[in-house]
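User: Show me an example of a complex going from sequences to structure tokens.

Assistant: Sure. Here are the input components:
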Amino acid sequence: MYVAVKGGERAIENAHAWLAEERRGDRAVPELTVAQIREQMALAVNRVMAEGSLYDPDLAALAIKQARGDLIEAIFLIRAYRTTLPRLGASRPVDTAAMACIRRISATFKDAPGGQVLGPTFDYTHRLLDFALMAECDVPPAPEASATPGPVPHITGFLNRDGLIQTEAAGEATPPDLTREPLELPASRPLRLQALARGDEGFLLGLAYSTQRGYARNHAFVGELRIGTVAVEVDIPELGFAIEVAEIELTECETVNQFAGSKTEPPQFTRGYGLVFGQTERKAISMALVDRALRWRELGEDFLGAAAQDEEFVLSHADNIQATGFLEHIKLPHYVDFQSELELVRRIRAEAELAQAQPEAAE
Amino acid sequence: MNDYTFAYLDEQTKRMIRRAILKGVAIPGYQVPFASREMPMPYGWGTGGVQVTAACLTPEDVLKVIDQGADDTTNAVSIRKFFQRTAGVAVTEATVEASLIQTRHRIPEAPLTEAQILVYQVPIPEPLRFLEPREVETRRMHALEDYGLMHVKLYEDIARHGEIATAYAYPVKVEGRYVMDPSPIPKFDNPKLSDSPALQLFGAGREQRIYALPPYTRVVSLDFDDHPFVASKADHACDLCGAGDTYLDEVIIDDAGGRMFVCSDTDHCGSRRRAGHVGRLGVPGKEVA
Amino acid sequence: MHDMALQGGFAEAPTQSARAFRAVLNALARPGTIETLVGAQPPAPASIAAGVALLTLADATTPVHLAGAHDTPDLRDWLTFHTGAPLVGAAEAVFALGTWVALAPITRFAMGSPEYPDRSATLIVEMPALHPAGARLTGPGIRDTAHLNLPDIAALRANAADFPLGRDFLFCAGDRLAALPRSTQVEAV
């Protein structure tokens, strides 16, 4: 006698219980706290905030803990939570020129007003495992300089002054929001930038790298990379002015890219732009390169068939929550579709065999 | 889950989805873009269907959820539980008792009624997508009613295999206008799409599309005069209930390649067995809970 | 803003709007079917059904046009308070409310584009009464034929002839509502 598979509900509950146990790991080892993750896994927290599109370090840290360190799973938790939040208003655009920088470097000028500030970077660390970290160890305080005096100007501003870089006109239009409206193609640059800002770091890294290796090469230099905090201000109509509601950490990257000029325009540099929550500079630089590659049409360049130039390709595949969901759904039961294919293949094979056995009759 | 509103989605999101559903109903077979939300289950696992169901549910509804025709597959269980928890609606496994049925990959065997809504989970809503990957292009094709590419593909199938080599997600034409993807249902189910007394709604979350077939809408599976569409199934009867007219799952039962065929619609099979029908391997009156 | 604007909304929005939507959905999916809507009390001259439909479907993202005698300060305030919908001219409207005479000619309203036929207006038409009699309706949603008293058969036939473009209609009288999508063929009897 055949008994159909039953008990899906209990199987799910048991799987969840097992998962919770595995997440906790060996109970002889103290449990991680959310504060520990927030403070000591800050770059993971930053990535989860950036791709989750929600600036909340505590929730991002909680998501990482719950997801057992699987960052895409953590991003998914944050996205699903974010969707349910009411929209209370929109902030003013943040002013990155007023950023209180902890890091600010330029590859295009040896020095510039405001100086080069390395900040807390891995850049010149030798990648040698520090076995001292195997044990708990106290970190001596880093030397401190006196605070940077006020905001530092954008490097590209200097080029802009001389007309050497393409001007990006300020716009009053409200940028579109792909979390509230379906993606429509062709997309405007603000919409593209939003998609890139929450896009998968690995996907953008690969695309950006491909442009460097010649797939729509755009000769990028890091004009400026800055990391620091900016104020978030919201206009209060009843008061008639804006108030600061938060301070957030951002990474901003402006690339300076070659441009040959055209019949109507003298040669000048162009820009790619990246802006990401937290300290996430690999992502910000990748974003700037891909942004620049996607601008081929407006800058009168040729479409070279490169993936990074292909807006529909990039925007349709940058979101890791969409990608991972669809990728992993092929492990769901598909036996109904498979059965229909099985029958089709059997039938076509049977007909082919019949035709082979009776060649005359088949003609 | 008490922090979430009725049927999980906030009111603004539900309004947006409801407007898209209404336009879909007004333009049968046309894919309405909608701002699909991130749901607490992964994209590709029914988020489109879940959002459509959430926008349609009322507290009085009786919900049935099936995956591959079965009520007890894990994903069906998971989605049903989600709505029990967030909407507090009554649930059932009986097709005839349900007022709203969410499905993945099947249309129930029992005839649907005017009092029912069938919500399909759709992975890739664009029937032309595998012929033309670009949305800009396929949108233009639908606008111009330019379906030549699809006919070429089907014709090439016939040239190569002697028949149209599509066994599921078999494309249909709706009211003589839009070519539509019926979701990955086996083509056996295609005839049930047409002239159904029930309203049929299709939700594709990741792809951000909603479309609809109002009741009694004319839906024709694409074919050629000399190669007419055939709604095929395994050439067997159900080994449990003996039905000869249902879609069957093939189950491998031993190491020697032995197999049996059973109804994919578990509710239909169960009710037939309760009514005394017995198939080749069924045991009268014993196995049905 | 008068106190009146603050009243007459949904008391229990999630469930009331869910029931109201199902009624509107059923009406549109089965042209000619007359549904009853409850839960809102908009200021005159708007009907209960029209008020419920707007509370259910309109919000800050859907511009609304109030036509003719429906363009009153009371109704404007009520709609703004309860839905946040911007009030606009006919051409930009996603929803429009008025009598047939006030809304006419319906060609003023968006009919969508060949790429996006869904970007079309839905007109909420106030009627003296609704009866399952009059014009003969055929098409999707209708098993054989249905009948509904319609205000202007010629204009509605012209609208259907533009399918898949066109406007869609919700007809309201008191607490009753019927609907006519662009896909319905309309004939005088």
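The lines above are the inputs; the final block is the predicted structure for all three components together. DSSP finds 13 helices and four strands in chain A.
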